Amino acid sequence: MIEKLAEIRKKIDEIDNKILKARWPWAEKLIAERNSLAKDVAEIKNQLGIPINDPEREKYIYDRIRKLCKEHNVDENIGIKIFQRLIEHNKALQKQYLEETLEH
Q1: With a cut of 50, which residues of the chain have pLDDT below it?
Q2: Helix (H, G, I), strand (E, B), or coil: what is residue 75?
Q3: CA distance 84 to 101
Q4: Quick one: pLDDT at residue 26?
Q5: What contacts 59, CB < 8 A, 6 or more positions away?
Q6: Closest to 6 (Cα-Cα) out of 51, 37, 49
Q7: How many angstroms separate the CA atoms of 31 and 79, rounded?
Q8: Which class is domain 2-103?
């Protein structure tokens, strides 16, 4: 199960890289793809008893985004703000998915 979570997170990392390189409307499609993985992550976290909030993972993402911003010549402040929103949205999607799943 941990391997599956790592596999999904690797896909998310690849999408994040593509988002920073992409131009609209392509980035929009990548964000939708990233969001769709939130349910898979929530399900695995629930099975493993891992909380939705994962400060270690978020630190990893932000450090990686800073590096990618430099590589792709994207303003770091804008890149971080974009991913703060994406992460918060994905956490909300995970919570919503778990609430809906646990109700049934």
Answers
A1: none
A2: coil
A3: 26
A4: 78
A5: none
A6: 37
A7: 13
A8: mainly alpha
